[in-house]
Amino acid sequence: MKFFPLLSFHVSGTHSRIHRSPSFLVLSTSLFYAWISRRFSEFLNFLSSAIHIARIDSRGMENQKSERASDKIGVNSNESANALNQELTSEILKKVVHNEEEAYDLYRNYGFCKGFSVRKGKQSYYSGTKKIKTKDYYCSKEGLKFDEGTSEASYSKLDTRTGCKAMIRFAIDEQGIWKVKRFVDEHNHLFASPTKRYLLKSVRSVSLSKGVVLNSMVNAGIRTINAYSYMAQEGGGAENIGFTKKDCYNYIDIEKNKMIEVGDSQSLVNHFKRKASEEGEMFYWDVQLDKMGRMTNFYWRDGRSKIDYDSFGDVVVFDTTYRTNRYELVCAPFVGMNHHWKNVIQNGS
Question: How confident is the model at residue 295 (pLDDT cuts 50, 70, 90)?
């Protein structure tokens, strides 16, 4: 094995000399670069730490600035909201209306601007007359509903009232002028956000012009859901047409019930009476009315149907899949089969 000494000593008399070999120079250079690399790494670490600390400080300053800005914006928004509230309150207190509809619209529009729904309240009359003396309108969350011990099978509606005290009272003079007599603007609940205010019950209604469009589309054979979707799209969104999908269906149902006029229902009743007088006990009929006294269902059975049922009543099919085009009433015939394999109507409803 061959060794390469780092240092070699040569003694010459009393003097000695140190000779540096090439290996020593290489090692010295390597140690120098290693020391430089370590110092440089320490410098980079220090620089990185300094930059990180500087970033944290800058972020903290930015957060403080943003918090201050948001505080200013919050203060400004609260101030603007208070100013708007005072303006609306001042306007409604000075307003004068002339009938019950105008008074309701005034408080309803005020509630829409603030984000709450309204409902009609109590009223008083002049002594001995039916002329209104005072009329109250409440926030929809006024009062409380107490449970009455309903059973498990009964349906209980969700209670949304919170005992809110907000209300307005109009006083009506003998000339029919409505003026604000009392105004309470203290709410104990959150208001609806601007994007949800179109869902408030007191501001939802199908106007006359939009009702005409709905009736025309439904009478032309267009489904109610498609008619509603078309109007929502044309109006730029469901929030711009003034009513919801459920309101649309309710309106169409009411209009269909109106189509069964007194003349139509009376003609049907007269026909049943005439058949009963002709066939006697063999003909049976009955009608069902709603709370408004309007016909909703009717049932009949003639003599031929009774005979067919007595002879071929072993199998009866009750079909409710057919609806008439005009009235949208379910036609439900009781169908059987005779000995010739032919369908026979045994009665109908």
Answer: confident
**Long-range contacts formed by 309-316: CB under 8 A, 24+ apart:** 309/334, 309/336, 309/346, 309/347, 311/338, 312/336, 312/337, 312/338, 312/339, 312/344, 312/346, 313/346, 316/346
* Three-state secondary-structure class, residue 219: helix
Q: Is 162 exposed, middle or buried (0-12, 13-18, 19+ CB in 10 A)?
A: middle
How many residues in the chain?
349
Tens digit of each residue's pLDDT (9 = 90 or more) over 185-244: 889 989 988 888 888 888 888 888 888 889 888 888 888 899 999 998 888 888 888 889
What is the 8-class DSSP label of residue 286?
E
CA angle 190, 193, 197 (to 5 degrees): 105
CB atoms within 10 A of CB 302: 20
User: Which residues have a Cβ under 8 Å from the Cβ of 295 and sit 6 or more positions away?
Assistant: 260, 265, 268, 287, 288, 289
CA distance 109 to 205: 13
Give 168's strand partners: 137, 183
Q: Which two tokens stand for residue 232?
A: 């929502």
What is d(CA 11, CA 120) in angstroms, rounded to the nearest whole number?
123
Q: Can you say whether the dihedral through the CA atoms of 107, 112, 114, 118 is positive or negative?
A: positive
Position 3 scores a pLDDT of 42
Query: Which residues touch 103 (CB under 8 Å, ≥6 apart)?
Result: 97, 135, 137, 170, 178
